[in-house]
Design brief:
The protein is an alpha+beta fold. It is built from nine helices and six strands, in the order ββαββαββααααααα. It has helices spanning 25-35, 57-60, 80-90, 102-123, 132-155, 166-175, 178-181, 189-199, 202-211; strands at 5-7, 16-19, 40-45, 50-51, 68-70, 75-77. A six-stranded mixed sheet has the order 1-6-5-2-3-4. Helix 5 (132-155) packs across helix 8 (189-199). The protein is globular.
Length: 219
Amino acid sequence: PAVCSTHFSTQSAMPKLYYTPTSCGAASFIAAHVAGVKIDAETVDLKTHTTTSGADFYQINSKGNVPTLVLDDGTVLNEGAAVLQWIADQKPGSVAPAAGTSARYTNIAALNYVASEVHPSIGGLFNPTLSEENKTFIKGNAAKKLTYLNGLFEKEKFLYSATVTIADFYLYIVLSWVNYVGIDLSPYPHVQAYAKSIAELDGVKSAHALIATNPASTL
């Protein structure tokens, strides 16, 4: 069965992040960059499942998804919430509350909300085989999530936190997909303003500029 942690042997320097510039894996790159956590990085072509260096990505992560983080001991983390928390724990308090605190558990709840509720409600629309009936159903779910978030961001600047965290980077990337899947954010002005505010953070702009160069590391 597929699991979110396994082991991988390689001669490459590690830890190493495998990602794509526009998928949820980009949130991990942004988080590491903003936190000042330097890790090796390599992009993956998800159509061919080949890395930039020509490696068979399935040999690195048999699930074939990004983000994937290979740790120094060969452990492979291949779910975004786990990767983001590992990054946060390298610089405690930088992009997530300290481990073991009530605030951290709230942050974990935020990550899981994005992963289980928002991501599939928007990302699910990328499936080219969906019938119109299924598209309508998924868009209906997305509208419910966006309505909730619109009410939240009318009062709050970030997702369940007084400062920007890994959950915000994840949600920001998911929201960036709306134009590709036919979702109009204009009925949700507070969500639009939130996404714009995250995009305009200096660290986020710097991360995107670096991603555009296909860098070998997050710093």
